[in-house]
Design a protein that fits this description.
Two copies of one chain form a homodimer. The first copy, chain A, has 434 residues and is α/β, with parallel strands linked by helices. The first copy, chain A, has two domains: 3-57 and 356-411, Urease, subunit C, domain 1, CATH 2.30.40; 59-351, TIM Barrel (Alpha-Beta Barrel), CATH 3.20.20. Chain A contains 16 helices and 18 strands. Chain A has helices at residues 80-92, 97-113, 126-136, 159-171, 174-177, 193-206, 218-227, 233-239, 258-267, 275-280, 288-293, 313-328, 336-343, 345-351, 382-389, 416-432, and strands at 3-11, 19-28, 31-36, 46-49, 54-57, 59-61, 116-122, 139-143, 179-181, 183-185, 210-214, 248-252, 269-273, 298-300, 366-369, 395-400, 403-407, 410-411. In chain A, strands 1, 2, 3, 4, 5, 15, 16, 17 and 18 form a nine-stranded mixed beta sheet that branches. A five-stranded parallel beta sheet of chain A has the order 10-11-12-13-14, with helices on both faces. The interface between A and B is large, with 69 and 69 residues.
Chain lengths: 434, 434
């Protein structure tokens, strides 16, 4: 039996930038059945009255490390090197599956409550994160961010190659591909050429997306060029065949160069912009208008909570929208629509998923914003309100593939109280000894 | 009868950066009576259990144009000149008192719900804004941002001089100085020397603060130097005696120079940083670390909703905290504490108000953050959570001068439904003809 949304302002995220007032959106079998100004015929299992709120595609968070909620604000105020070596790495050595699950559930709740319907995860213990995602009802692309620090690479000598294969066997395609597994490399500076080639072949052979950290800091970018005869991380990875799968997405891209953008456009490599993390860690400002102009798809990510320190993608959307204007001293460097598109359709394109827009046949990944939220009144332009005025807490309903998983502060797939107790009483003592 | 907060993590905003877990804070006669780790003796009219949440000083929004809520997102995506001349100014010609009151109440509700206890307003129909503030229970510094476009200045020929005097007579000192009136100039480019001198004398004669827009855009800054023999707006205003009152606060300061900072430090001119507005409008990035290093007090503002497009000062606090790190490629350019101080104590210093910290004798301007908010768990460091992870919607209680004016989504001094009806059914049709 289908579900009907009525009394909503529907932001379709189509090429015509359609905003449909007083819209009706019907959902059936997990997908959008119809969109229009008239009530569709038929009977409905449930009619959801949007009370004048905005109905929009769920947000796609294309770069995050979900269980890192545990380290929210831990070691902030230290230099990057000090922070990683003296705060993050020692804690990460202590993770177990139970703590990962609790902290992943906390991260998933935070994302769901603030409008994310699809996300990526690149972290540790990813088999466990897969179960958390399976239970939560969101869509996710999982990867393990392979590293290799040894001298002579061979798949047998690389534990992460085994992790990549096991993750693929366990979760890829789960629940009509609600979960997908991506091939992934952590980064150029944590790999050897053999691993890069192996990862590229794995993506190509299995038809998988590729996810890599690229040119996040100037140091990383310049040191790669020194190591590889002037090749940037994008160019070096290209030589290794890393971009030879169907599509790829590169997190950060702060220091990418014009030659990189041409490769990215040609090889379907999305730039995943993480503006909060890039600012907070002092990495810089990614050249987003240039990437867009070069024909590169751009998506948005929050990065891990440890470098953000929330997973409210509305915040990243706003900062993405205004940051380029400010640093380029051009009030029209990016538009509100550009930012909303990055957070929805751009993410769908990055992951090759049939979501990020409201149109018949798309997955019913939908969020409803509170029509009575003070910060959304009046509404002269829905896209402006979404990009500049909305907060994650304005989300009153989150529907993933036709199933309501969050409504008016209640989580329907995750036990909030149990999760918070596990985080506070188990994970935090385990990781931090307190 | 006093009120007691218990079971809170109190962020005192003192010089020692004290964060007091499991604190007790007692309030009596509108002021903070005691702060400590032990329950104070005596009986209480009400005991507020903070359930582990953060109790902190209320935020001080030092630059805003409160009634501009009506223009939220109106004309976004146009160049500054086009936006002002073809969108904002024609609408502003239509204001009446009833619309101002409704839109001011909407703005005040948005600020109160997101933790502001003290604000400034520089706009039109300020006598009416004064009544809204008086009824809302917050503290405010009101000014009318005087302009003069005529040839020969005389106080009699300048309507805004009359407005300044009337505002001063009507509202200055109201309710034990909960409302104060500041002297103010809109900006150098909207004044003549006579008005600047008159305003400076008015501030000096009446012991008032001075509030001015300063060096917001490069164009404004450079054109001032051309007009006045190389003097920047800060320097020109200094020559006119504008900074000769007890203290002043200058909004934006994006293009100020080292010589300006020295004058600001010497003459007690606060820089009010409006990072969202400066980014969104393409104005640039204010040199905040340099201002701080030069000994200038820094406060925070949201600017008007029309250039933000919300009044959530937590958002500005976060962007202030991370923006300098990013553009200076230094993860320690500003700390979390720096940003929280700008939003609290820095604002109190700017306005010369006895607020912005939790200490016996200070006004009881206090806000409580939800201890169960997902984005504030875990809490390794309360200041980090406030600056980087908190959202305005985490505020569950707002107390101004010892009186609770907002709690768990309910406004105790403003009629929310009546206000929204007035905005939608009266103000929006009046201003926009729809």
């Amino acid at each position: 039996m289908p579900i009907l949304f009525q009394n909503v302002t529907a932001v379709l995220m189509d090429a015509a930038h359609t905003v449909l007032p007083n819209a009706f959106v019907a959902v059936e079998g997990g997908r959008i059945a119809s969109v229009g100004a008239a009530r569709p015929a038929g009977s409905f299992e449930r009619v959801i009255d949007g009370r004048g709120g905005i109905l929009m595609p769920g947000l796609v968070n294309c770069h995050t490390h979900v269980p890192m909620t545990a380290m929210r604000g831990y070691g902030d105020g230290h230099s990057l090197h000090d922070w990683l070596n003296n705060f993050i790495f020692p804690v990460e050595a202590k993770w177990d599956h139970r703590a990962i699950r609790a902290c992943a559930d906390l991260g998933l709740m935070e994302m769901i409550a603030s409008g994310v319907t699809c996300l990526t995860d690149m972290y540790m213990h990813t088999l466990t994160v897969g179960q958390a995602v399976a239970d939560a009802g969101v869509s996710a692309n999982l990867c393990c961010g392979m590293v290799f620090f040894g001298e002579e690479f061979s798949p047998a000598a690389c534990g992460d190659c085994k992790n990549q294969e096991e993750l693929f066997q366990t979760w890829h395609g789960y629940d009509d591909s609600r979960i997908q597994v991506d091939a992934s490399l952590h980064a150029e500076y944590t790999s050897k050429i053999g691993l890069c080639e192996w990862a590229g072949a794995f993506a190509r052979d299995h038809g998988l997306n590729m996810h890599v950290h690229i040119s996040e800091t100037r140091k990383e970018h310049e040191e790669c060029k020194q190591r590889h005869g002037g090749l940037t991380p994008i160019q070096y990875m290209d030589r290794c065949g890393v971009w030879d799968g169907p599509r790829s997405y590169a997190a950060h891209c702060v220091w990418t160069e014009p030659e990189d953008w041409a490769i990215m456009a040609q090889k379907h490599v999305t730039a995943v912009h993480n503006p909060v993390s890039n600012l907070k860690l002092g990495s810089g400002v990614a050249p987003i208008p240039d990437l867009l102009k070069a024909g590169v798809n751009v998506a948005l990510g929050t990065d891990g909570v440890s470098s953000n320190n929330t997973t409210d993608l509305f915040e990243d959307m706003k900062i993405a929208a205004i940051l380029q204007n400010g640093v380029r001293q051009d009030p029209m460097a990016l538009t509100a629509w550009d930012a909303v598109e990055m957070a929805t359709l751009g993410g769908a394109r990055a992951l090759g998923r049939d979501t990020g827009a409201i149109a018949p046949g798309k997955w019913a990944d939908l969020i409803l914003l509170d029509g009575e939220a003070l910060n959304l009144i009046p509404c002269h332009d829905a896209a402006n309100n979404i990009a500049y005025a909305a907060h994650g807490c304005d989300v009153v309903l989150n529907m993933c593939r036709g199933k309501v998983i969050y409504e008016n502060g209640e989580f329907l797939t995750i036990d909030r109280e149990k999760t918070l107790a596990e985080v506070k009483q188990y994970a935090v003592p385990l990781l931090f000894g307190k």
